Amino acid sequence: MSEPVSISTGIAARYATAVFDLANEAKQLPALEKDIDALEAALGESADFKSLIASPIYTREQQGTAIAAIAKKMKLSDTVANTLSLMASKRRLFVLPQLVSELRARLSDEKGEMTAEVTAAKALTKAQQDKLAKTLKATVGKDVKINMAVDESLIGGLVVKVGSKMIDTSIRSKLAALQNSMKEAG
Predict the structure, then answer these.
(1) SS3 of the chain: helix, strand, coil, percent, to 5
(2) Among candidates 121, 172, 120, which has minimal Cα distance to 148?
């Protein structure tokens, strides 16, 4: 792991611990989850938002003003809004993606869930996702939340990552394995 990533992860973990503990003590975990969903959506959809948190050209004051307005518009809880303002004043907004990820993991642990990163050649229906979640629950012993992604280069099948385990049943990987075995034989 490179040093900047390690530093960002450490900073995000400290903020996540504080935010999670505050929300938990105030019995506001559902509101925290809603805030995380909103921030995750904003990070995924808005290039301007990503630029605001990552670009060094904005001053502390500009970031603080902008993040306060964004938090108000998104109707974020006071705990999250205040944390984002603090992060802006300390020039730490660049760790927001790691903070969201860390908070998501803590909420999942609290609820006894795991998140499975699933990549498929085409989008799975709700029924297929539910069946996959049920199968994974039987394997890992916890409720499984599916994070779905589509990658047409897989040709068919799935790539499932749950915790440190990865299951690759894609046709692309099977073709690659076949190609390797043919090279070894010939």
Answers:
(1) 70, 15, 20
(2) 120
Q: Residue 9 contacts by C-beta under 8 Å, 6 or more apart in sequence?
A: 1, 98, 102
Q: What is the pLDDT of residues 29-76, one digit of tens each?
A: 999 999 999 999 999 999 999 999 999 999 999 999 999 999 999 999
Say what the pTM is: 0.72
The three-state secondary structure class of 98 is helix
For 111, which DSSP code?
H
Strands annotated E in the chain: 113-120, 143-150, 158-162, 165-168
**Residue 153 DSSP one-character state:** G
What confidence score (pLDDT) does residue 106 get?
93
